[in-house]
Amino acid sequence: MDRTWFGGDPAGAVPVNLSSEAPSGVVGANRAPEWLAPDLERVEKLLLATAGSSQNPLVSEASTHLIKAGGKRVRPLIVVLSARAGQSGLVGTDRAAAAVELIHLASLYHDDVIDETDVRRGVPTPQAKWGTAIAVLAGDYLFASGCALGAQAGGEVPILLACAITEVCEGQIAETECLGDPSRKASEYLDTIRLKTATLFRAAAELGAATSAATPEERARLVAFGENFGIAFQIVDDLLDLVGDTENTGKTPGTDLKEGVFTMPVLLACERDPALLSRLARGDRDLDAMLPMIEATGALSLTATEAAAYAHKAVDALEGLPDTEWRLALASLVDGVLAQVE
Predict the structure, then answer these.
(1) What is the DSSP letter of 5?
(2) d(CA 122, CA 83)
(3) pTM confidence score
(4) Nearest Cα to 106, choosing from 132, 140, 72, 77?
(5) What's the rounded Cα separation, in Å, for the pair 169 and 166?
(6) Taking the CA atoms of the chain, what radius of gyration do you get in angstroms?
(7) Are 202 and 161 within 8 A, CB to CB?
(8) Measured distance CA(132)–CA(18) in Å, rounded
(9) What are the pLDDT digits (tens) for 259-271?
(10) Strand (E) or helix (H) holding 282
(11) In the chain, which ranges are continuous DSSP H helix?
C-alpha cells in the first residue's frame, strides 16, 4: 500500500503534507481522511473551548492566538490514531489529545520568549504581539489548562502528562545550558531532543493506547513509534531552520543559528570544519555566511540520513500492529515529515 496517502483510496484522500500550516479553523495541516475527521473536530473544539475559557478577553485572545493560527496538530493526531488500537472515540481520549496539544503550545510560547522569536505559524508570536510578560503568563495558563484537562480525563493520563512535562523542561534546560557551544557532540544533541521533543510524541502515542485499553504489546509498539518519530521530526525541523522557506515553515530561517542553538547539521559541520567551529565560537551567526560552509561539509545530507534512520525505526515499530487504516495513517505521518527534506 502507498503510505503517502491517508487511507486505501488515493482518489478519496489528500496527500500528507506536514510542511504546510493549516489555515485558521482547519483541523491539522494534513487534511485527515473522512473517517478520522470527527475525532479531530471534537479535539479542535475542545482545544479552543479550553484555551479560550477565561472571562478576561486578553487571556482568551492570547491563549488561543497560536491555535487559531493553525498548526500541524501532529500530537493530538497521534493520540486519536493510537487510540484506534483499542476502543476509540472516548471522551478520555479526546481530553488527552487536547491536553497534550495545550502543553505543546505552552512550550512554544515559552520557547519564543527565550529565543525572542517574532514569527511562528506565519503570525506574530505572543511575545512579539503582547510582550514578554503576557507571553510567559499565557504559556503558564496553557500548561495549567492542559494539566486540568488531563485530570478530567483521569486514569493514567495525569501521570503520563506530568512525566512528559518534566522531561520536556529537563531537555529545554539542557539545551539552554549549551547555548553558543559549537563543540557540543551530536550525541548530546540527540539526548536533548529525545527529552524536549520526542517526549511529547511518545506521550501522545501512549495516551492513545492507555485511554483506549490497547494491549500491552500494542502500547509498547506505539510508544516506540512515538519516540522515534519525535526524534526524526525534530531533526527535520532543525534542518528546515537552515534551508526551509518561511512561506512553508511559518518561521524565520536561521532562528536557531542566530540564538546560538546549534543543532545536528551545524554540529556535524563543525566536527568536519574547524574554521566554521571557530567562527561560530566567536559569535558569527549570519545564516547567509554560515550556510555555504555547512553545506560544503556534507552535514545537511548526513543529517537527512540520520532523520531517515529514526523515521524507519518508527515505521518498523508499527510492523507488529494490525494492518489497518490507522496504522497506515501513522506511517504516512512519517513519510510526510521526510518528504520535506528529500
Answers:
(1) B
(2) 31
(3) 0.88
(4) 140
(5) 5
(6) 19
(7) no
(8) 29
(9) 899 999 999 999 9
(10) none
(11) 37-51, 57-68, 74-82, 91-115, 126-130, 132-153, 157-177, 186-196, 198-211, 216-243, 246-249, 255-258, 264-272, 274-281, 287-296, 299-317, 325-338
- Which three cell numbers, joined as nine digits, stand for 185? 557532540
Question: Cβ neighbours of residue 14 under 8 Å, at least 6 residues apart?
Answer: 6, 30, 31, 33
The string of DSSP codes covering 186-244 is HHHHHHHHHHHTHHHHHHHHHHHHHHTT--HHHHHHHHHHHHHHHHHHHHHHHHHHHH-
**Which of 231 and 250 is assigned the larger pLDDT?**
231
Q: What is the chain's length?
A: 342
Longest dimension (CA), the chain: 56
Q: What are the structural domains of the chain?
A: 10-341 (1.10.600.10)
Buried b (16+ CB within 10 A) or exposed e, 88-119: beeebbbbbbbbbbbbbbbbbbbbbbebebeb
What number of other Cβ atoms are within 10 A of residue 4's Cβ?
15
For residue 86 the three cell numbers come to 483499542
Query: What is d(CA 175, CA 155) in angstroms, rounded to the nearest whole number?
Result: 32
How do residues 108-145 score in pLDDT, each as one tens digit?
Answer: 999 899 888 888 888 999 999 999 999 999 999 999 99
b/e code 130-165 from CB counts within 10 Å (16+ = b): beeebbbbbbebbbebbbbbbebbeebbbebbeebb
Reported confidence tier of residue 293, pLDDT bands at 50, 70, 90:
very high
Nearest alpha-carbon partner for 165 in 140, 133, 136: 140
